[in-house]
Design goal:
- The chain is about 35% helix and about 20% strand.
- By secondary structure, it is α/β, with parallel strands linked by helices.
- The chain has a single domain, classed as 3-Layer(aba) Sandwich (Rossmann fold).
- The chain has a 5-stranded parallel sheet, sandwiched between helices.
- The chain is globular and about 35 Å long.
- The protein starts with a strand and ends with a helix.
- About 30% of the residues are buried.
- The mean pLDDT is about 95.
- Bound molecules: 1,3,4-trihydroxy-5-OXO-cyclohexanecarboxylic acid (DQA).
């Protein structure tokens, strides 16, 4: 299985940013854990703070990868373009969030991508990514 993890804006600051919400680990460290836990998965990781670059990445892999786990960060709540890109590609996407967005500000309660995703996992810390991967594995059986 070829699986891409995409992180959107400010997620490059994990481990430094608002640690009480997002935890102490960098994504690079967590990514290594995922790679060793799932040795059979062919992983790629991509992060950008730029909306158009995230859309370009979805287009680039969206017809040849098996699975995408995407945390679009704040663009989740604002980007019609990312939602449309997910609708336009073939690869299924699971939306993930580290924090429980529904327990936070009201503007975080809306997702403009959710309707085009397989499902959403939020509020499980970095484990949200692992749960999404497990779901993709169970769908592929
Ligand atoms: C986030 C939640 C978003 O509302 C926020 O803008 C982020 C991170 C999360 O993983 O909890 O940047 O997607």
């Amino acid at each position: 299985m070829k699986l891409l993890i995409i992180n959107g804006p400010n997620l490059n600051l994990l481990g430094k940013r608002e640690k009480s919400i997002y935890g102490e680990s960098t994504f690079e460290d967590y990514f290594k854990t995922l790679q060793s836990e799932f040795p059979k998965i062919e992983f790629e990781y991509y992060q950008s703070n730029v909306e158009g670059e995230l859309i370009n990445k979805l287009h680039e892999v969206g017809f040849n990868y098996n699975a995408i786990v995407m945390n679009a960060g704040a663009y989740t709540h604002t980007s019609i373009g990312i939602g449309d890109a997910i609708a336009g590609i073939e690869t299924p996407v699971i939306e993930v969030h580290i924090s429980n967005v529904y327990a936070r500000e009201e503007y975080r309660h809306q997702s403009l991508m959710a309707k085009n995703c397989v499902g959403i996992i939020a509020g499980m810390g970095l484990n949200s990514y692992k749960l999404a991967i497990l779901q993709f594995l169970s769908l592929s059986k």
